[in-house]
Amino acid sequence: GWHRQESRIHPGIVDFGAPVMDHDGHALAALTVPNLRAVHSSTDDRLMISALQAATARIAECLGNPALNAE
Cα dist. 40→25, 35, 45, 47, 50 in Å? Predict the structure, then answer.
């Protein structure tokens, strides 16, 4: 999963977040990446989400999530 949220603190910032999951499907942590709204588009959103999910999957794999090693 993932989440996109306009920053409530800093106007013009869009935050993207995704969980780092363990082998039981529980969130161990979350990775959040801020982005400038003025310089991104919906295409950039898709690329950001894809990169974010790849990064959280890699972190989970490094932490020993065997379910990701099988994929």
Answer: 31, 8, 7, 10, 15
